[in-house]
Amino acid sequence: MPVKAYDMLAHTLTRAGIPGPKALQALRHYVVAGEVDRACDVAFDMYRTSEDWEGRIWDELMQIALQEVGLADPYAVEQVHSLRKIKETTEIYNPAGGGMHCLCFVQAIRYLCACGRDDSLEAVTREIRGALDGGAQPVIPDFCYDHHTRLGVEWGRTPLDFLDPDGGSKVVPALEGVAEPYIARLREILTPEYGHGEKFKAPGYIAWEHFNARSGVSADLILAAFQKCIRRAMEREALMVACDGFLSGRDFENYFFNRMVIMSIEDIGMGDPNCHRLMAAYRDSRTYFPDDPDTRLMYLLQGVRYLCSCKKERATELIKGIMVKEFAAGKVPEMPE
């Protein structure tokens, strides 16, 4: 197993002679306490020690944003990730003069110190993981068996059923009055194709139907339940499905993180127009922790919690679906006079 950077640095001293673990604990303590100047002093000592130590500053700040600030300011994760990417692409490491690298971590510290605190994620993660390890099974509600799954296709479910008021596309809490005209239009388009008992030809998750998650549940159902439970704000069910998939391997993990980015546009839409930035930050932030599955799992579960809490509307996805059908039938765009 690769040795974590944290473990290697644990046996070194900062330039001021502070043991690695003590410096990291001090940085977190001061940030959580909102003590900007002391936190910046600790971080600058770490920064001027080495580039490896600079990396640990950022790892710690990213984990503070996720674990200590949490849903008190969900966008803290995006702020810290963005600043880390900026420093990586702007200037070189400059411990003597500080430079842009120093500016970025000072800005991140100031931002985090000003945030509220919600450290509930660790307890939620521990409870969900413990339930699965204890033999609990993820719940797959009936509405997940839609035309995207093998069983849903066998049962005759189609894209038209998906649009039913209690079908797989239902969102909670819904941003009322936004998607309804597009649902009506798409139903009108799909009725000649699927309104007389015709079967849908291929499930959306067909490549997954021959695999099972750790729980033994078919992978296509796990993927379907992940998105549809989030759509309905069924937080615990979604967290159980997400954790089960995550523990089943990197293919599930990668799928879930990419799917959350898609959902931020497809299902959240104008409920939170900036949500795609946050979900992309969750997805990309976890790549800094390749040997730390606990942190990667927390990024996933926090993303699920946030998506469940959002107001939702699917007009963007519906407009896309309408255009695909209408242009395939020969529609051309109108031009201004």
UniProtKB/TrEMBL annotation:
Domain of life of the organism encoding this protein: Bacteria
InterPro entries: DNA_pol3_clamp-load_cplx_C (IPR008921)
BP GO terms, sorted: DNA replication
GO molecular function, one term: DNA binding
The name this protein goes by in its record: Uncharacterized protein
Species name: Bittarella massiliensis (ex Durand et al. 2017)
The organism's taxonomic lineage, starting at the top: Bacteria, Bacillati, Bacillota, Clostridia, Eubacteriales
